[in-house]
C-alpha cells in the first residue's frame, strides 16, 4: 500500500463552503474498485481532497495488491478522523456502502456514524431541468462548466488495467489509475459551485423589486405580468433561463428575474360546505341558508359542489397547489388554482420573496 500526495496550486473553490462546515473540517472522497459489490471485488484506491494551510490538497491511498485493503482502510480512517463532514458524488449509493461492507468483511471496526454527509449528486440532480443537462453524471456536470479533464477513462475501463498492474506493476498503468481518481476528486471541487442551484430552491431569496408590466403577446393579445427582480442566495456559476406553466425565470450570478402571468378577470371561490348553501340561478351566486331562506323557493335550489361559489373580479396570480388561501378557480373542474393579489400583498416584499421561491420550486417539479 502506498500514499500519494499532491497540492493544488493556484486553485480556488468558487462556492461558500462555510455553508456546509468549516473548510478544514470537510473531506471530499472518491473510491475505485474492481466491481460493484464489496464481497466480489477489490478496493484498490481511495482519493480525498482537503483544505490545509490555505491550499487544497489531494491524498490517495493505493493498494498495490488486493491484500493491501486492510492497511489502506486503516490509514484512510485514521486520516479522516480529523474531519466532520464527508462530501462525495453519489456516495450514498456506492462509495459509503461499499466501504462499510468491506470493513465488515475484513473485520475492521470503522464506520461513518460520526460524519455528516453531503452527496453532491443528490443535491444537484433535482436541478437538472434548470441546468438543461442530459443527465447528472459527474463528467456531464464538469463539461457544463467547461472543465477539461486530463483523464480520458471511465472507472470501468480501468478495472482490467488494475488487474494487469497487480500481475506486473507498471509506472504508466499506475499513473493512469491515479490520474482518473485524482481528476474525479478535483472534479468534485470544481463542480461545487453548482450547489448554488440547490441553494436557489432551499435557501431564502429576496424580492428586491416587484412591479406589474403590460405587454402584447405573440398572438397580439394584451397581457399583464408580475415582474420580480430577485437577489439570489448564492451566485450561479452559469446563466440559466427556464419557462414553465407560463412563468419565466432567468438568473445570472446573484440576480434573477421572475415573470409571472397576472390575470385581471372574474374568478370563483367555491365553498366546501355546499350543503349549507342555496344556489340562486338568476343571480348565479350561492348564499348561505341563513340568508337565502328568505328568498322565494322558486328562485333558489340546493347548492351542489359545482354551484356553491361566489364570483369576484380582481387581479389574480397562479399557484400550482395551495400556497395562498383563499384560492380561486375559473370553473369547478378546472385544475388551475389562483389567489387574489390584494393591496396589502402589493406592499409586502417578504410575501413576494416567499412566493418567488415557491414558484421556482414548483417550476422545478414540472420537468
What key attributes describe this structure?
367 residues; alpha+beta; 2 domains; six-stranded mixed sheet; 28% helix
Structure commentary:
It is a single chain. The two termini are 47 Å apart. The longest helix has 21 residues, at 171-191. The protein has 11 helices and 16 strands. With 367 residues, the protein is α+β, with helices and mostly antiparallel strands. Helix 2 (95-106) links the parallel strand 5 and strand 6. It folds into 2 domains: 2-199, 2-Layer Sandwich (Nucleotidyltransferase, domain 5), CATH 3.30.420.10; 263-340, no CATH class. It has a 6-stranded mixed beta sheet, with helices on both faces. Helix content is 28%, strand content 34%. The radius of gyration is 29 Å and the shape is elongated.
List the helices and strands and how they pair.
Elements (H helix, E strand, L loop, with lengths): L1 E7 L17 E8 L9 E10 L2 E8 L6 H12 L4 E4 L6 H12 L9 E4 H5 L3 H4 L6 H7 L14 H9 L3 H21 L3 H8 L3 E11 L5 E23 L2 E15 L1 E8 L6 E4 L4 E4 H4 L8 E2 L6 E11 L7 E2 L8 E4 L2 H4 L2 H17 L2
For the largest beta sheet, what order do the strands appear in spatially? 1-4-3-2-5-6
Q: State the secondary-structure class.
A: alpha+beta
Class of the largest domain, according to the CATH hierarchy?
A: Alpha Beta
Number of helices: 11
CATH superfamily heading of the largest domain: Ribonuclease H-like superfamily/Ribonuclease H
